[in-house]
UniProtKB/TrEMBL annotation:
GO terms for cellular component: plasma membrane. It is a multi-pass membrane protein. Its main location: membrane. Residues 409-492 form the Mechanosensitive ion channel MscS C-terminal domain. InterPro entries: LSM_dom_sf, MS_channel_C, MscS_beta-dom_sf, MscS_channel_2nd, MscS_channel_C_sf, MscS_channel_TM-2, YnaI-like. The chain crosses the membrane at residues 163-192, 213-230, 242-263, 284-307, 313-330. The keyword RNA-binding does not apply. Belongs to the MscS (TC 1.A.23) family. It is found in: Cell membrane. This is Mechanosensitive ion channel protein MscS. One of its GO terms (molecular function) is mechanosensitive monoatomic ion channel activity. Residues 333-397 form the Mechanosensitive ion channel MscS domain. Keywords: Cell membrane, Membrane, Signal, Transmembrane, Transmembrane helix.
């Protein structure tokens, strides 16, 4: 009896001690623990849980506290108390560095968080305000109406599940399958119409990708329906956690697949566009962009999956950034080459198959990669130029020329009469005009100076064709015509020589050539040579 009296005396003391231990809101961990602990079935005391709600009456606070837990349970959001900070002055690092708050699930449920008010931590005003809309989103009104219609027999348990839950799960799966079939037809119809609008023609490869896209999109629609409807079955937190984890993983995998296929469709359409453009540098950009976009989709999807498994991607990205910076410092040449590649694709100083001169390198551009550019020289050897150096060089893109310029000097003997020099210049001009591969409106043939051993006649012409082989053939025909003109006129080409003057002996003839400067003969020779040149090239002249 004495022990019983002591128990009655000490019981209020034990209760007060228990409240002081349990009801604690000095830090985020204590507040969340207090809220969840007193709403468990074996420690159910909603009045104590409601103390985490500030500024409401006790009844309202109890209602809000219960709904917060039901929303978390319904979405399968398991609070890992080991990760909740115990620092009473904890500051949010998500975007409010000067704000004392802690968000329980930043990615999946950012509206629910605790904040410091005075010396204690409470559920935020935003959380209390939005909990009603969140609750209705998780548990729609029609579900609440249907639950009131469930008979007593529907609450009988089979394998720890109530009969109405099993029936509702079966009906939800059947309805989800019907939604999948309908969504698949609608998705394929819309995607096919969209493809016709974009490409304006029927492409077999694009159509195959469109068909593959319709399937995962319709599955995503079905998964969205299951995500919205499953909380209404009121399964336990553990069941909801695993179900929603599986649904979210499946949804993320499908989204990765959809974006990969979208990248394939977009790059296929872009490839068809580049095939119609003049330059081939865009063609080289297609595989590079395809690899880049594919990598971004995979990395983004992997980060999303890590978030679902509770990995803090913010810290991981920060660590990767620091590691990436260190790696970049250790591989500056690679980074420079990557930047050079970007500059080449932005500036487009040349295209694939252009003939360029870059420093000592002369040749045809064959490939532009991430790190370097391949240039094939005239002797078919390959130059591998780092893009960082190529972007800094002065590039002479001969592939962008409108015409091929040819400039040379013809040396005539110093004893050539002025009349024959004029005749020779006139004849060369007429040959250039008659030549089918030269520009007749832009040329220069002039007696320009006196060389060491010859009178210099400059010939400056522009060939129409940009092809190297055709240019050489055109030069050949021009040279042959000039040589024939010189032979018929009696004009000799000079070569390096030394003239020695000696006394002419009686009855000895000098070595100097005799020039015929008869004007009628000169005109006849020029007309004949030009006429013969035209006869040798009848098809080119007529064209």
């Amino acid at each position: 009896m004495k022990n019983f009296l002591w128990l009655l005396v000490l019981l209020p003391t034990f209760t007060i001690a228990q409240d002081s231990i349990r009801v604690d809101m000095s830090n985020p961990h204590a507040t969340v623990y207090t809220h969840l602990y007193f709403l468990q079935s074996d420690s159910y005391q909603p009045k104590k849980a409601a103390k985490t709600i500030l500024g409401l009456s006790e009844d309202k606070a109890i209602e809000k506290a219960i709904k917060i837990k039901q929303v978390l349970d319904g979405k399968g959001l398991f609070v890992d108390l080991n990760k909740v900070p115990t620092n009473s002055n904890y500051k949010d690092s998500i975007g409010y560095s000067s704000y004392f708050r802690y968000v329980l699930f930043p990615e999946r449920m950012p509206q629910i968080y605790v904040e410091k008010i005075g010396d204690n931590w409470y559920y935020s005003t935003e959380t209390v305000t939005k909990i009603e809309s969140l609750y209705k989103e998780v548990y729609p009104w029609y579900i609440q109406k249907l639950q009131k219609l469930i008979p007593v027999s529907g609450h009988k348990k089979i394998l720890n599940l109530e009969l109405w839950q099993i029936t509702g799960l079966f009906l939800m799966l059947v309805l989800g399958y019907l939604i999948f079939l309908i969504a698949k037809r609608v998705a394929f119809f819309i995607l096919l119409k969209l493809q016709h609008q974009i490409t304006k023609n029927t492409n077999f490869e694009v159509n195959k990708v469109i068909k593959k896209l319709a399937h995962p999109i319709s599955l995503l629609v079905m998964l969205t329906f299951l995500d919205k409807a499953f909380p209404s079955l009121h399964f336990g937190l553990t069941t909801n956690t695993w179900v929603f984890l599986g649904l979210n993983i499946t949804e993320t995998v499908f989204w990765i697949y959809v974006f990969l296929k979208l990248v394939q469709v977009v790059m296929r359409i872009y490839a068809e566009f580049t095939e119609r453009t003049h330059g081939r540098l865009d063609d080289q950009l297609v595989p590079i962009l395809h690899s880049l976009l594919t990598g971004l989709v995979i990395v983004g999807g992997a980060l999303k999956l890590l978030v679902l498994f509770g990995v803090d991607t913010t810290a991981m990205i920060a660590g990767a950034t620091i590691g990436g910076l260190a790696f970049a410092l250790a591989s500056q040449d690679t980074v420079k080459n990557l930047i050079g590649t970007i500059m080449i694709f932005l500036d487009k100083p040349f295209h694939i198959e252009d003939w360029i001169e870059a420093g000592e390198v002369v040749g045809t551009v064959e490939r532009v990669g991430f790190r370097s550019t391949q240039v094939r020289a005239a002797d078919t050897s390959i130059y591998q130029i780092p893009n960082s150096k190529l972007s800094e060089l002065v590039i002479n893109n001969k592939g962008l020329r409108l015409f091929r310029r040819y400039n040379t000097n013809l040396g005539l003997r110093y004893d050539t009469p002025p009349e024959l020099i004029e005749a020779f210049v006139k004849g060369v001009r007429e040959i250039i005009i008659a030549h089918p591969e030269t520009r007749s409106d832009s040329y220069n043939v002039e007696f320009t100076g006196f060389g060491d051993s010859a009178l210099l006649v400059m010939v400056n012409v522009y060939f129409k064709s940009l092809t190297w082989g055709i240019e050489q053939s055109s030069k050949h025909r021009l040279h042959i015509a000039i040589v024939k003109l010189a032979k018929e006129l009696g004009v000799d080409f000079a070569f390096p020589s030394t003239t020695v003057t000696i006394e002419n002996f009686p009855e000895k003839k000098g070595l100097n050539p005799k020039y015929n400067i008869d004007k009628e003969r000169i005109d006849a020779v020029i007309t004949s040579v030009v006429s013969d040149f035209n006869k040798e090239n009848p098809s080119e002249t007529s064209s």
